[in-house]
Amino acid sequence: MRVIEHLNNSGKTAFSFEILPPLKGNSIHKVYHVIDKLREFDPKYINITSHHSEFIYKTLPDGHYQRVNIRKRPGSVAIASAIQNKYEITAVPHIICNGFSKDETEYALIDLNFLGVYDLLLLRGDIKTLDPHPDKDLYHTHATALQEQVNRFNKGIAVDGSVFEANETPFSYGMACYPEKHEEAPNMESDVYYAKKKVENGADYLVTQMFFDNEKYYAFVDRCRKEGITVPVIPGIKPIVFKDQLTVLPKVFRSDIPERLAAELRACKTDADAKEAGIEWCKAQCKDLIAHQAPSLHFYTFMATDSVYQVAKEVY
């Protein structure tokens, strides 16, 4: 079943989560361990993060530099297929611009279609590690351009313009949105404008960046509805697990920490204290979102699986 079908037919706030592929050379059993721990809460879908390429410059024997493309984690295609076949849970691999060429994206779409994985999350990727000199003919620089490639693929048009027999089952996808404004957006109006464009061009739903203040999510959804955006807007949730996240998360993700939570974290003497404070805040946050009939709670589990389990145990 497609993600959008789960969201429309669930009748209650769905449970879903995102996992990070293991470091290159490690076993997929680390992924299975996370899923096994959270499976009891009936996840409707599981997202698989794509780890982008990174570019380094290697010094050659003659003193020249060679630009080398490296990846530290396996791609999400094989992992999505493994999860979907092992657990019979809808898998949603991330397809990103950063570090992946248009041709590589097309190969991924071909493989996913062959493997029976038809749900995607389309993202730009981490802008802080973007290649400073991308070849605009080879790489997408914005998620909306990636979206257009997927739309054309669904119609049977390859990246080189050639025509092939369109897939019997087209890809369905969601895209990102930012209740506290994307760091490059000049204002919230601009953010909502591009969210609307994503939906008009085919996104079935939107998933938010993590946030800790539900009022900002509710205000963002209200603004979207006033602009005619009717698709589900899924809240992205992450419980705080370390003391230093009080400063790290606002810096890296531009997520505001409400003062009451900030005060609790400042009073924590250890990471264990911070983890407990994060769990309690997240429980209250999730209960409130469920009371407001959020379509799904989508948890970011990286380094937080135990906390997500404790939250889900109480709210589901």
Provide a brief overview of the structure.
The chain is an alpha/beta fold. The chain is 41% helix and 18% strand. It has a domain at 3-177: TIM Barrel, CATH 3.20.20.
Q: Secondary-structure blueprint of this entry?
A:
Layout: H1 3-9, E1 14-19, H2 29-38, E2 45-48, E3 54-59, E4 65-70, H3 76-87, E5 90-96, H4 102-115, E6 119-123, H5 143-154, E7 172-177, H6 188-200, E8 205-210, H7 214-226, E9 233-237, H8 245-253, H9 259-266, H10 271-291, E10 296-300, H11 305-315
Parallel strand pairs: 1-2, 1-10, 2-5, 5-6, 6-7, 7-8, 8-9, 9-10
Antiparallel strand pairs: 3-4
Helix pairs in contact: 10-11
Structural class: alpha/beta
Largest sheet: 8 strands, parallel, barrel
CATH architecture of the domain at 3-177: Alpha-Beta Barrel
Numbering strands along the chain, what is their spatial order in the largest sheet?
1-2-5-6-7-8-9-10
Strand residue content: 15-25%
**CATH fold annotation of the domain at 3-177:** TIM Barrel
- From the N-terminal CA to the C-terminal CA, the straight-line distance is 21 Å
**Rg of Cα set:** 20 Å
* SSE sequence, one letter per element: HEHEEEHEHEHEHEHEHHHEH
Assembly level: single chain
Approximate helicity band: 40-55%
Overall average residue pLDDT: 89
Poorly predicted residue ranges: 53-57
Q: In total, how many beta strands?
A: 10
Q: What is the level 1 CATH name of the domain at 3-177?
A: Alpha Beta
* Overall 3D shape: globular
What is the helix tally?
11
